From TrEMBL, chain A:
Source taxon at top rank: Bacteria
Keyword annotations: Amino-acid transport, Cell membrane, Membrane, Transmembrane, Transmembrane helix, Transport
GO cellular component, one term: plasma membrane
Protein name in UniProt: Amino acid/amide ABC transporter membrane protein 1 (HAAT family)
Membrane topology, from the record: Multi-pass membrane protein
GO molecular function, one term: transmembrane transporter activity
Keyword Membrane set for record: yes
Any one GO biological process: amino acid transport
Transmembrane segments: 6-33, 45-61, 67-90, 161-187, 207-229, 241-266, 272-296
UniProtKB/TrEMBL annotation, chain B:
First-listed, main subcellular location of the protein, grouped into a coarse class: membrane
Pfam families linked: BPD_transp_2
The protein, known as: Amino acid/amide ABC transporter membrane protein 2 (HAAT family)
Organism listed in the record: Rhodovulum kholense
Record-linked InterPro entries: ABC_transp_permease, LivM-like
PANTHER family in UniProt: ABC TRANSPORTER ATP-BINDING PROTEIN, HIGH-AFFINITY BRANCHED-CHAIN AMINO ACID TRANSPORT SYSTEM PERMEASE
Location in the cell: Cell membrane
Chain ranges passing through the membrane: 7-27, 47-71, 83-103, 109-129, 160-178, 208-234, 246-271, 277-297
UniProtKB/TrEMBL annotation, chain C:
Signal peptide as annotated in the record: none
Pfam families tied to this protein: ABC_tran (PF00005), BCA_ABC_TP_C (PF12399)
SMART domains found in the cross-reference section: AAA
SUPFAM superfamilies: P-loop containing nucleoside triphosphate hydrolases
InterPro entries, per the entry: AAA+_ATPase (IPR003593), ABC_AA/LPS_Transport (IPR051120), ABC_transporter-like_ATP-bd (IPR003439), BCA_ABC_TP_C (IPR032823), P-loop_NTPase (IPR027417)
Protein origin, superkingdom: Bacteria
Keyword Signal in record: no
Full protein name: Amino acid/amide ABC transporter ATP-binding protein 1 (HAAT family)
Molecular function terms, GO-annotated: ATP binding; ATP hydrolysis activity
Lineage: Bacteria, Pseudomonadati, Pseudomonadota, Alphaproteobacteria, Rhodobacterales
Species in which this protein is naturally found: Rhodovulum kholense
Amino acid sequence: MEFGPHLMLAVLEGAVTAAVLALMASGLSLVFGVMRVVNVAHGQFFMLGAVLAWAVSSALGGGAVGFVAALLLAPVIAGALAVAADLTVLKRVGYDPERTIVATIGLLYILQQAALMTYGPEARPVAPPFNDRLALPWIEFGPEGPGLIWPWGLSITSYKLFVMGAAAAVLAGLWALMTRTGIGLVMRATQLDRETAQAFGIPVERVYAGVFGLGAALAALAGVLIVPIQQAHYLMGGDALLLSFIVVIIGGLGSLGGTVIAALLIGLSDGIVSVFFSPTLAKILATLLVALVLVFRPEGLMGKAAR
Amino acid sequence: MRGGRLIGLHLGLVAVLFALNFVLPAYSHGTVARVMVLATYAMGYNILFGYTGLLSLGHAMFFAAGMYGLAMPMTHLGLGAGPALLTGIGSAAVLSLGVGLLALRTRGVAFMIVTLMFSQAAWLTILLAGRWTRGDEGVVIPQADRMLLGLDLSDPSTRYLAALALFSAVLFGTLWLVRQPIGRVLVAIRENEDRAELLGYDTFRHKLGAVVLSGTVSGAAGAAYGLFFGYAGASFAETHYSIFPLLWVLLGGAGTVIGPFLGTLFMFYLIDLTSGLTPAYMLVAGVALVLLTLFAPQGLAGEIRRRWWRGLP
Amino acid sequence: MSALLSTRALSRSFGGLRAVHEVDLDLGPGEVRALIGPNGAGKTTFVSMLIGRVAPSSGRVLFDGQDITRRPAHARVRLGLAYTFQITSVFARLPVAENVALAARRRLGRDRAAVAAEVARTLGRVGLTGREKIAAADLSYGHQRLLELAMGLAQAPRLLILDEPTQGLSEPEIETFKALVRTLAGETAILLIEHNMGVVMELADRITVLDAGVVLAEGAPAAIRADARVQAAYLGTAADA
């Protein structure tokens, strides 16, 4: 393949990554935005989504039915687990930022190791419900002027297009929830000032539990969506967490719009950079970039100064 | 109440560990030697977390800097063990100075994430430099090279005593430090940084000093681990190894001199036992972290201090 | 002029809001100066700029002839400024004696005996002798304010900035505080931010009135009491309280 089509393929692959990443990171960002705590176990809910997708779809004999069931069930189960963790652990440490991080590190290992004990160390695939290969054209400037060609290998599957569409739909729904509904209003009020919200009769603890659950559900949904593309494995949460951190920090902690833009940026550049360079080097550069953003521009590249 | 009893307690610990050299069965003998080196790492971590109040999630990079700062010149340049120990410690000192200068511009949660990110980058760099580091597989330091001042560190008893010497030096060093004015300032920063600044203490420089000291001690432990056990591998740079000292210190008691040792000893044996039963042995670490956060944020030595001995440093 | 502390056109705005605007102030050695004004007049912002907790938008701060506008807080403290917080800020989990020792040690260094003597002397002065070993958090609120004061004194400052020191104190505690401040005459200059007019009128050599970020009036207590503008802006509502 020539450079142009190669680049386009990288962009498309990157867009899939970006879609999944945006879902995951928006969950992390939501939790930080409203609760002011960092959920280090967030990547494990992503892993949980993927593992549950395998469990549900193989229990139902695979196929489209199993996948749709997983799409609905996995986020609910992960969300319920997160609510339980919030009520038994985070609430009891009073959402103190540092103690919450230590507790969610503990939660990280509990979830990850529980997956190892039950699901095992294997990586397992889930068949996508549909997977038609769609060849894509490329414009070539030949001696007779521009014309369409169909380079071999330049294609995308219908499932990958579905992932992008589904992520966009869920994010739009999340945005509508936050800005257009009473629940969103309550969440934003809690985010602005916990004490005042409480004084106005907002059940802050229930909001927190709900937000923590919703954040985990978003991660799990991302996990379900990715599993037909990338197999489910009990260690897959680590990289996912790191990438989400990168996205959330570059996009500005707690800003949904910034998160989506940053996910696109990171997803696309990850796709492009790792096609042309060593993926390890790409990760090193991305990690260092994020650390430096936090050091020199803690409000994120796109965010406004906090408070 | 100053002095005597305290020195007695810590000397007693060292004496017991010394006596154990002669009575422990082979397996435990090796384990305790390892625990002493890892407890040194935990004590290094404790200087920053326990006494200065800065929670780092990236100390594995300092441990690994010591380990690779020792192993790389030994493997590729034929450097002797003694000078290599110094290059190891020096690498950790330089790295912690650089990381401190950058990371200390942030506070709280951002500090934790910045250190995590730097450490992740360090681990990936070790993998990227696989030509020299051999990545996850790691490099073995041949037995013949593990000679320090005429002592053969591959001999179990020599290795045990060398580990004890390092451990004791850092134990008494910490005990001395925290009773010095400078140690008191670190505690003051932990308790109320604004107030410390407005008593005229340059809190940034004190925190930077704490990062460098903590990172250097951690690196010394890493270098010693590589030298004593003849191996340097990328797994020591992974996030696990940043979480471990946090767990050990929390369990033993943050901000106590003896706590890191207690925590390392208990947790090491607990994980050792569990790993015989299941590959999911890190479950124990996870459960311990949650339980400690919920029920005993002071740790073992912290509980002792709260209940019986208020002056325990 | 041999002013100890001077500000020149010192200003600070927060996003367009002028909290402090071009304040000139001169405070002599050993002087007790009160800074008063209604809530939101910019008093706390102003002293925060003196001590280095808030950076000025423009203007200068001079201490003992040196321009300290860009110096960090700890460097200013080393020159001889001391600050007690409006909201009690002590090392809550450390013993009372260690709180004061931290303040004294910066000046006296490693000399344990000198530090211990200074701690004993200062705690005696504020009347906290006998409470050395309890944690600062276990002191009553009034005693915590006294501890703050002791931490200020143990630094042997040349200018002690007291931000609302009598807030929340009982009447007898306020009497103790006033007596203590009188004993400091000649030892250190004092800048007193205070709401309690009785305390201000009794202790201050001079009073500066801040209103909406600018200096409204400055003068001896009697003159300030008589100033019509001050009465209109401030005293008219607060003097009866």
